[in-house]
Specification:
106 residues; mainly alpha; 4 helices; 0% strand; EmrE-like; cell membrane; transmembrane helix
């Protein structure tokens, strides 16, 4: 359950990061509300996961999920550049997330 809570927190981080882009500096009401709600929900689920996961591991995985997902959504939604170097470094983040999960399996 703790890992599921952490994944939910990471997915919500992606949501609020994309919402932040759509809010245009908090000048658009609905995207701003979406962003703030996403932030609160993301921190809430992270706080639940932190009850039983090490802080460093949970934080790294949370930000890693958010980072990888936000890059993917940036490519899809905002036509951000896709190049091999960028994808390789995103792959390193994914490897790091998997590695942290494997060494924290208990």
């Amino acid at each position: 359950m703790k890992w599921l809570l952490l994944v939910i927190a990471g997915l919500l981080e992606m949501c609020w990061a994309v919402g932040l882009k759509y809010s245009q500096g908090f000048t658009k009401l609905m995207p701003s509300v979406f962003t703030i709600v996403g932030m609160i929900a993301s921190f809430y689920f992270l706080s639940l996961a932190l009850k039983s996961l090490p802080l460093g591991t949970a934080y790294a995985i949370w930000t890693g999920i958010g980072t990888v997902g936000t890059v993917i959504l940036g490519i899809i939604l905002f036509k951000e550049p896709v190049d091999m170097t960028r994808l390789i470094f995103i792959g390193f983040i994914v490897i790091g997330i998997i590695g942290l999960k494997l060494v924290s399996a208990h």
